[in-house]
Amino acid sequence: MLMRTDPFREFDRLTQQVLGQAGTWSRPNPMPMDAYRSGAEFVVAFDLPGVDPEAIELDVERNVLTVKAERRPIAGDEVEMQVSERPLGVFSRQLFLGDTLDADHIHAAYDAGVLTVRIPIAERAKPRKIAIESEPARKEINA
């Protein structure tokens, strides 16, 4: 099972409860993701358009997967910016991996601005058949 926490999500939820509408203090998520199970693995896809693959770090420590990416400005010093709506800087997300996932065999690929992380399901968590043995008929011992 894949678990995650986002402190701003809780803040948005609380604001929505108090104001009865979406929070006005919320910020757009600069690293939106999709997560789903596909066969014997979990797949997590992060949207990172405009991020150089060299500016992406992926770390696992004690079942916590951390994705860190930096979107740098494209324009140089001589450019006078007219509109700047895309967030720049360092962004990170943390996913807490459940015990049913194999954090030792994670695979990641980056293509067309999408970082795809594949996390296999641990062998011990996969469904398996249990063999049923037939016991020999119990012999009554009557002497």
TrEMBL record:
What name goes with this protein?
Hsp20/alpha crystallin family protein
Q: Which residues form a coiled coil?
A: none
Family membership noted in the UniProt record: Belongs to the small heat shock protein (HSP20) family.
Q: Which PROSITE patterns does this UniProt record tie to the protein?
A: SHSP
Pfam families in alphabetical order: HSP20
Can you give the residue ranges of the SHSP domain? 24-135
Organism, by scientific name, is Amycolatopsis rhizosphaerae
What InterPro entries does its record include? A-crystallin/Hsp20_dom, HSP20-like_chaperone, Small_HSP
Gene3D superfamilies noted in UniProt: 2.60.40.790
